[in-house]
Structure formats: C-alpha cells, structure tokens
Write the structure tokens for this entry.
Amino acid sequence: MSPALDTMFAMAKAAQDKAYAPHSRFRVGAVVRATSGRLYAGANVENAAYPVGTCAEAGAIAAMMLGGESAIAEVLVIGDGPSLCTPCGACRQRLREFAPETAQIHIAGPDGIRRSFTLGELLPHSFGPENLR
Ligand code: THU
C-alpha cells in the first residue's frame, strides 16, 4: 500500500472501532479523501428502528461537508468477514454526488485492501448532478 493509502486504512480502522452496530454486529469504517488531500472518516451508526441507521460512508460524507469540502477524490471502506464490504446501493449514489466516476473505491478487510474499483464500475450508467443541469 502507498503511504497515502496506509493512512486512509489506519483512519478507517480507527473509525470502524467506534462504529455503533449492536444490531448487525457488523462494524464498518469509511474514509473519503477530498480533493484538498484532507481525510474524513465515518462509521455506521445503527438504530433499534433498523432503517433509521446510517452507513459509514454517509458519516464520512457528512464530516467532509462540515470540513467545508464537497469534492471526493478517493474512498476506502473497511468491514470484517470474508466478503468484500462494498458500499450499499444507496451509498454508491451518495458517493456519486461528490465523486467522479473515475474515483477509486478501495475495499479493505482487517489486513488491508482486498480490491479496488472505480465508482463507475460500482455504479454504471448512473444518474448524477449533471443530469439536473
Ligand atoms: N454498512 C455500512 O455502513 N457501509 C457499507 O458499505 C455496507 C453496510 C452498514 C450498514 C449496517 O449498519 C451494517 O453495515 C450491516 O448492514
């Protein structure tokens, strides 16, 4: 991993440790790198009323907005278990609002990055802000 990705991985893992996931017991951490280079982390926050819970990616995007930024260059998501913890459909669309289709989305497990995709691969032929201009 490049030093930049190492930092994103460490930050995502620290966020994952802070996730609130008593219902699924599936903790997720996410980090977005804004085009400024600054990193913003988020973790999933579940709720007894299940649909009210929020994903790690949504938290990271909210943190980026509070940091005064709105352009995503790269994303790293970490989850446990044997399967790839790829963003859910809704989060792919959330990322699409702020990231180009060429943005790399790195999917990590406890030991590091397992696979990387572009946003366009995860959400092909997508509807985005340009559609409304
Ligand atoms: N989850 C995320 O936070 N991000 C993902 O990319 C996949 C799923 C959360 C939602 C829920 O709290 C838990 O993981 C199980 O679905």
About this structure: Helices lie at 3-17, 56-66, 89-98, 119-122. Residues 21, 24, 26, 28, 44, 46, 53, 55-57, 77, 85, 87-88, 91 surround tetrahydrodeoxyuridine (CB under 6 Å). DSSP finds four helices and five strands in the chain. The CA atoms of residues 94 and 131 lie 15 Å apart.
